[in-house]
Amino acid sequence: MVWIILVIVGLLGGTLGSLMGLGGGIVVVPALLMLGGLSFLEITPQVAVGTSLLIMIFTGISATLAYMKQGKVDYKSGLLFFGASGPGAIIGTWLNRGFDTDSFQIYLGLFILFVSFILFIRKYLKPLPRSGKGIQRTYKDEEGMEYTYGYRIVPVLAIAFVVGMLSGLFGIGGGSLLVPAMIVLFAFPPHLAVATSMFIILLSALVGSVSHMIQGNVNGMYALALIPGAWVGGTLGAAINRRLSSEKLVFFLRLMLIVMAFRLIYEGMTSV
């Protein structure tokens, strides 16, 4: 029964993570902690994060391949972001070592509430005026609409570093911050932002998961149960992103995240 639950968790995390460029850890980490709290599994915050990052590699590969076929990944921008998010992921992995289960649940719950707020306001966010300085790129969508977006190197590296650090710390991928930043600050078209975010998350997850493996924070048996669902979910999320409006799923995700967040905060505070 536990393995079936893990497959479902992997599928849900992979689908929602790929659909909105979040990476899937925002679902997997709280779910693992809750299963551990119910005595189904032996899960520490470090194992939850390390295993989640390993799963995000497969979600990232699956989703990135699907988005590559759609021509929606900006590789040059993605590699630039990764130049800072990779080191950030290593530092986040190191910071994660200092958490016990109770404090981790509280901080993760607060961060998830912040993510749910970002998801709530994301559709209202409009790109800020650009000065025309820095790197400029163009993108033409499937309907022939051409978009211009751009960024400066220093803000990109600063944001990417924070995203990578959060990925290594919480195992959540960082896309919840990365996608809105790409849309608002750099005027990325939303679909391009989601696809490129998954590419960056894939690279950051590779670095973060290796760091956690070295520290013994990855449970191979749990990962084997989560990977099939995450792989299928990564492809499924990319397909849904292409064909459907994601508003209803975003609403469902926000509701689910809020419930998870309050449960994590409650369990962390009552155990202190």
TrEMBL record:
Keyword terms: Cell membrane, Membrane, Transmembrane, Transmembrane helix
Endpoints of the signal sequence: none
Pfam families hit by this protein: TauE
Alphabetized InterPro entries for the sequence: TM_pro_TauE-like (IPR002781), TSUP/Inactive_protease-like (IPR051598)
Membrane disposition: Multi-pass membrane protein
Top-rank taxon: Bacteria
GO CC annotations, alphabetized: plasma membrane
Transmembrane segment boundaries: 7-35, 47-67, 79-99, 105-125, 195-214, 220-240, 249-266
Keyword Transferase part of the UniProt annotation: no
Primary residence: membrane
Keyword Transmembrane found: yes
Cellular compartment(s): Cell membrane; Membrane
Family of this protein: Belongs to the 4-toluene sulfonate uptake permease (TSUP) (TC 2.A.102) family.
This protein's name: Probable membrane transporter protein
UniProt source species: Halalkalibacter okhensis
